[in-house]
Amino acid sequence: MPRLRESRSWELNTFYYQLEENICNEKAYHKYVDRYFNGLGKANKNEHRIGNFFLGEGNENENHSTGLLSAAYLLRGFSFFQKKESRRWTWESPNGMTHAEIDHILTNQKWCLLDTSVVPSFRTSSDHRLFRAKIRLSRKLEKHSLHRPRGKSLVVYDENTLNEVLSKCDWQINEDLTEDYELLVEGLKSCAELASVPQARRSDRISITTKGLLEKERKQKLDPTAARLKWLVINASCRRALQEDLQRYKQKKLLEATEKKAVWKNAVGTCVTTMFHCQS
């Protein structure tokens, strides 16, 4: 018996390892796993991948199944929808006295799973009941979830204000090097915050002239009586203007970043020199 139990444990570990590897290697956005998992128990307070609704208890395979959910970033669909007990159990014992919920639908996107339930009216020759899931595939929600948030904008500092704040700041010196470093960092952060210049959210990467050409192109495209040759000429002018504006905007941003880095280096050097004179 111990050898048989050890062999079964090895086969179970191999199965879950291969399943996890296949799920992780799959590059699809929507992933669904429909299989018999005799081991998914009730969720604890720290497990967010398993819902609160479940029929029965887990067994010795629960650690493997829960580990699969965490490793493959899956959610157990059945446990997130409240159903009657007669609409939950998926397996029946040969004597008809024992029922258990051991068949599951796993997915990696919770928002696309609308409902899960068994189909009691559909009779099969198996001891497992047929179950179904209602899913929603939305291109809009998919794009929204894949959208990368806007990165933090680069902070611009006023050179005169920064030098003035650095010279007026009370730079304290502590004998403990760790505390002295923390005081230096806090002082630099406060000075940088006071010298930062608020930036407008609207970008100036496209000039007013180019915007006028784009508006003219739009009107020509919507006008059914407009000549196609004229529209092609305006379209070519818009492309050239956009390329020039974007190139000009790129050069401007590179120049601003270089100047800002130079200003910050000079300010830090001035601060260190001032602290050195104060210490001496």
From TrEMBL:
Gene3D superfamilies: Endonuclease/exonuclease/phosphatase. This is Endo/exonuclease/phosphatase domain-containing protein. It comes from Angiostrongylus costaricensis.
